[in-house]
Amino acid sequence: MINYKTKQEIEIMKQGGEKLKKAVSQLLLFVTDGITTEEIDCEAERLIKKEGAESSFKRVEGYYWTTCISINEQVVHTPPSKRIVKTGDAITIDIGAYYRGFHTDYSTTFVVGEKTDEKTKKFLKIGEETLYKAIDKAKLGNRIGEISKTIQQEIYGNGYFIMKQLTGHGVGRDLHEDPFIPGYLERSINKTPIIKEGLVIAIEVIYSKGTEVIKTEPGNKWSIVTEDGSLSACFEHTVAITDKTTVILT
Predict the structure, then answer these.
(1) When you count CB atoms within 10 A of the terminal residue's CB, does the N or C end of the chain come out lower?
(2) pTM score, two decimals?
(3) What is d(CA 2, CA 67) in angstroms, rounded to the nearest whole number?
(4) How far apart are CA 64 and CA 90, in angstroms?
(5) Could you tell me if residue 1 is inside a domain?
(6) Does 83 map to a domain?
(7) 2-8: long-range contacts at Cβ-Cβ below 8 A with a sequence spacing of 24 or more?
(8) How far apart are CA 171 and CA 176, in angstroms?
(9) pLDDT tens sequence across 50-96
(10) DSSP code per residue over the chain
(11) End-to-end CA distance of the chain
(12) What is the pLDDT of residues 121-132, one digit of tens each?
């Protein structure tokens, strides 16, 4: 069941999203060659608390960190560790803030340092552009399938692969709510939910350079990696549909 949000609830989520944005903008400046993902996570926790919010991810049963930090072939859900970040690594930071009873969710992928080859630069550029094209489809009266179709066309059209088992989702009082937002069209658009006022969703573009097959990383029950070890990335925003427009909350 989809939990539509009132204008007042969306306003609270907008405030939470602003706090998350502030924390993330500072966190990205903190990431540098030689730092551990554990240190990044500690800073993320500090910054979110400084904004008067809490970690969303720590509210997930069995997960004890503020962020998921995935590097290169790691796709999503990788817990922070003593792994050292190196120049040239493609790092995905997935983070959520809990504020006044509501969650917001955000993710981005970038290369550490200035050593970025053109293929990787294009790979990440396509993912980020695809997210905004997908958000453009999140309009009153459209259907969820139009978001999915856009992601599918852009990612496959550029020769990359969608991680079909991993999807976007509704977000609100729970971090993960209905509806699911697949990155591909799994059924006809007309059979997907209509986008109505009050819908708040986290749209995610999760893709890789070489495969759509994923597996659990050996020795890590949370972390998901590409089966062939190819580069992966994730771009995500939480958006709200109001009676007038679509608002990017994060």
Answers:
(1) N
(2) 0.96
(3) 26
(4) 23
(5) no
(6) yes
(7) 2/170, 2/177, 2/178, 2/179, 2/193, 2/199, 3/170, 3/172, 3/173, 3/177, 3/178, 4/196, 4/197, 4/198, 4/199, 5/172, 5/198, 5/199, 5/200, 5/240, 6/198, 7/242
(8) 5
(9) 999 999 999 999 999 999 999 999 999 999 999 999 999 999 999 99
(10) -B-PPPHHHHHHHHHHHHHHHHHHHHHHHH--TT-BHHHHHHHHHHHHHHTT-EESGGGSTT---SEEEEETTEEE-PPP-SPBP-TT-EEEEEEEEEETTEEEEEEEEEESSS---HHHHHHHHHHHHHHHHHHHT--TT-BHHHHHHHHHHHHHHTT-EE-TT--EEE-SSSSSEEEEE-SS--S-GGGSPB--TT-EEEEEEEEESS-S-EEEPTT-SS-EEETT---EEEEEEEEEE-SS-EEE--
(11) 24
(12) 999 999 999 999
Which range marks the domain in which residue 236 is found?
A: 7-248
Q: Is residue 34 part of a domain?
A: yes
Amino acid at 148: S
Of the candidates 52, 2, 1, the one whose C-alpha atom is nearest the C-alpha of residue 23 is 52
The answer to the question of residue 131 being in a domain is yes
